Amino acid sequence: MRLGFLGLGVMGVSMARNLARHFPLTVWNRSANKYPLVVKDTNAMVGETPTKVVQESDIVFIMLFNAPAIESILTKDFKRAIRGKTLINTSSVPVEFSQSLATEIEKAGGRFVEMPVSGSKVPAEQGQLVGLLAGNRGVVEQIRPYVEPLTCSAVYCGPIGSGLKAKYAVNTLLVTLTVGLSESMNLARAQGLDLAAFSQVLAACPMASAYSKIKVQKILNEDWAPQASLQDCYNSTQLIGKAAEQANTRSPMMQLCAKLYEEALEAELGEEDMIAVSKIVGNSKQ
């Protein structure tokens, strides 16, 4: 099977490289400067347009920034080219958009699978993302071999929308953990503790995880290079807030986290790692 990949951001580059090691792959990105990161040492090819990628592929992955970015590529030619092929969207978008996208692709004669992923840059590089699959069960089972190079686990969550709902719930823990970790480190700093020693305490505690260890080290090193950008995390808080409202449930911690991430955006930290919210947590004194 020939694969295509649209969107070579922080996550997309690593995902595309992992696919290219196993399958013939054609890639596209809005800015050409990302192509060398994928084609170097792989057999990946470059498609001039999203439609060209679809024409050269049997299965096409999308990892674009948001719903408007996806809408911008859905030209008439794109829809004609998708007939008889499968589109797998790994981007985080609203449930309603995913459902309408599925309808558009199916009307065009294609098949649609929803697969947002849990994980950031390092798991993406290692092929250790968690895939949250949704859609027609038969179609999902048919494409499983082609998501294996990306994932440590790919879980079927239900009909279209279910994968995204799972992603919102997972990211609720992720975002609150990130803010909580930031607050913990800042309190240690404010009390005059040796942060290197305190990081060893955190690493030895039952709450420690691979994620917390990576983010603590980034704080210690003042390394703000994005593994998942702060802008992406803010967008996630907005999707989660809307999901909680639609589900008629409370999400008080997320409301607070969203405000902190909004402050971080206003402080022009959007291109830094999501743990850069620690700068705002440390400066916030109500």
UniProtKB/TrEMBL annotation:
SUPFAM superfamilies for the chain: 6-phosphogluconate dehydrogenase C-terminal domain-like, NAD(P)-binding Rossmann-fold domains
Q: Which residues form the active site?
A: K167
PROSITE patterns with a match to the protein in the record = 3_HYDROXYISOBUT_DH
**UniProt-recorded Gene Ontology molecular function terms:** NAD binding; NADP binding; oxidoreductase activity
Q: Which InterPro entries match?
A: 3-OH-isobutyrate_DH-rel_CS (IPR002204), 6-PGluconate_DH-like_C_sf (IPR008927), 6PGD_dom2 (IPR013328), 6PGDH_NADP-bd (IPR006115), HIBADH-like_NADP-bd (IPR029154), HIBADH-related (IPR015815), HIBADH-related_NP60_sf (IPR051265), NAD(P)-bd_dom_sf (IPR036291)
Tree of life domain:
Eukaryota
The name on file for this protein is NAD binding domain of 6-phosphogluconate dehydrogenase-domain-containing protein
Q: Which family does the UniProt entry place this protein in?
A: Belongs to the HIBADH-related family. NP60 subfamily.
Would I find Isomerase among this entry's keywords? no
Keyword terms of this UniProt record: NAD, Oxidoreductase
Q: Which residues form the 3-hydroxyisobutyrate dehydrogenase-like NAD-binding domain?
A: 161-279
6-phosphogluconate dehydrogenase NADP-binding domain: from which residue to which, for each copy? 3-154
